[in-house]
């Protein structure tokens, strides 16, 4: 696989969203122009996100509002990875308690599974959603004690918000795991189900762009692809991880830039 300095022009840019393209509802300055520049240069861009709460249609809509053209097929989510994983392990039309957002519910339906809110279940899937509460823990843990398969969309402990890191899916998963006394199978970055989804959808030649070494960087290693780290999300160049962020990895990634706008000229020159 080509590495830094010898990358094929055909390599797909697999770009994370939260902390890279936007923070909450607001685009990170320069990200829209950077993505447009990649497209004009003939580079394919796919969007690879551990945020399971949104559907691909919602992601495409948010990109469109920034002036970035994308198709739903360009969006790969941990919700999709989780749905494919569950579908491979339970019977068709299986009942899945979705302790998660709309993105997970839609992904489950797309693979022929039934999303439910309570009661006996063949599987429980936990993903990021802002309505998570005590009752959510109780319902999920009860189904898991009944023998349901336990799947986490991802284990990111935090989620990059506009002003500070917010609790991420990993925090929700930990609460359910503690209550149920069970550990989940993980679907999203950097786990094998997401790697399989990436290869099936975009091929074997790509570059991972992200803000989190523990997931984006690890995903690049699993795929044996170059990793481009941007410092606009959870990673701090000064090494301070006290606010829920991450530190610069050692060895350094193939590319490092302040944000997507600073990164894209490096990618186009490679």
Number of separate domains: 2
Q: Give the averaged pLDDT, no decimals.
A: 93
Instruction: Report the CATH topology name of the largest domain.
Output: Rossmann fold
Count every helix, treating DSSP H or I runs of 4 or more residues as helices: 9
Low-confidence stretches: 1-7
Which CATH class of the largest domain?
Alpha Beta
What is the end-to-end distance? 14 Å
**Main sheet attributes: strand count, strand direction, barrel closure:** 6 strands, parallel
Please tell me how large the radius of gyration is: 18 Å
CATH superfamily of the largest domain: HAD superfamily/HAD-like
Order of helices and strands: EEEHEHEHEHEEHEEEHEHEHEEEEH
Strands, count: 17
Q: Which of globular, elongated, flat, extended, rod-shaped describes the shape?
A: globular
Query: What strand line-up does the widest sheet have?
Result: 5-4-1-13-14-17
Write a structural description.
By secondary structure, the protein is of the alpha/beta class. The protein has two domains: 12-77 and 190-269, HAD superfamily/HAD-like (Rossmann fold), CATH 3.40.50.1000; 80-186, Rossmann fold. The protein is 36% helix and 21% strand. The strands form five sheets. A six-stranded parallel β-sheet has the order 5-4-1-13-14-17, with helices on both faces. The longest helix has 12 residues, at 134-145. The chain is globular, with a radius of gyration of 18 Å.
């Amino acid at each position: 696989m080509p590495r830094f300095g010898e990358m094929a022009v055909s390599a797909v840019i697999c770009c994370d969203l939260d902390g890279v393209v936007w923070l909450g509802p607001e685009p990170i300055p320069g990200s829209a122009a950077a993505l447009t520049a990649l497209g004009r240069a003939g580079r394919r861009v796919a969007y690879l996100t551990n945020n399971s709460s949104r559907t691909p249609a919602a992601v495409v809509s948010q990109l469109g509002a920034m002036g970035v053209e994308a198709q739903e097929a360009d969006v790969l989510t941990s919700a999709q990875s989780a749905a494919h994983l569950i579908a491979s392990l339970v019977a068709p039309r299986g009942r899945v308690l979705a302790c998660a957002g709309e993105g997970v519910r839609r992904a489950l339906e797309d693979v022929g599974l039934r999303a439910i809110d309570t009661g006996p279940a063949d599987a429980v899937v936990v993903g990021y959603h802002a309505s998570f509460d005590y009752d959510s823990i109780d319902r999920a843990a009860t189904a898991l004690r009944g023998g349901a398969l336990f799947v986490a969309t991802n284990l990111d402990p935090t989620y990059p918000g506009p002003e500070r890191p917010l609790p991420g899916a990993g925090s929700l998963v930990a609460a359910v795991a503690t209550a149920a006394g069970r550990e989940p199978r993980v679907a999203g970055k950097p786990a094998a189900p997401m790697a399989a989804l990436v290869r099936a959808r975009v091929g074997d030649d790509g570059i991972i762009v992200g803000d989190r070494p523990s997931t984006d960087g690890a995903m690049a290693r699993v795929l044996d692809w170059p990793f481009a780290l941007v410092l606009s999300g959870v990673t701090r160049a000064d090494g301070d991880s006290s606010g829920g962020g991450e530190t610069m990895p050692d060895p350094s990634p193939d590319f490092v830039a302040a944000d997507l706008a600073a990164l894209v000229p490096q990618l186009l020159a490679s």
